């Protein structure tokens, strides 16, 4: 199950990168930073829920406990990727990497992380 959960998370990662590219290329120039960050967060949350809904059966997340573990794995991988990429590739400081967690300028990143955490559980329950 862990390998399947990792493969699904990689799909979410690709969608998150595409979402960010869409935001920077189309939304921000037309709507401004605040609105584009808000819409991008909502869109990514919806995409995560959609991916979780589609994959929950394939993941064999067949219990509340298992679905919570999948969500915790996804959230953990997201944080490791975010801080690893931010520090190693983008050379951001810790302060810069923590800015999205402050709910400033329309950024709802902490809400997106909560959605990533709970999406498998919510979709298991709905299923």
From TrEMBL:
The name this protein goes by in its record: Uncharacterized protein
TM regions (residue ranges): 36-56, 68-88, 108-124
Domain of life: Bacteria
Keywords assigned: Membrane, Transmembrane, Transmembrane helix
């Amino acid at each position: 199950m862990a390998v399947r959960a990792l493969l699904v998370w990689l799909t979410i990662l690709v969608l998150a990168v595409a979402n960010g590219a869409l935001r920077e290329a189309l939304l921000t120039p037309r709507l401004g930073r605040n609105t584009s960050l808000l819409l991008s967060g909502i869109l990514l949350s919806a995409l995560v829920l959609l991916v979780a809904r589609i994959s929950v059966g394939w993941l064999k997340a067949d219990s509340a406990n298992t679905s919570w573990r999948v969500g915790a794995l996804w959230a953990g991988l997201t944080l490791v990727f975010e801080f690893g990429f931010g520090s190693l590739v983008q050379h951001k400081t810790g302060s810069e990497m923590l800015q999205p967690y402050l709910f400033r300028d329309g950024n709802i990143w902490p809400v997106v992380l909560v959605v990533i955490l709970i999406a498998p559980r919510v979709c298991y329950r709905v299923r």
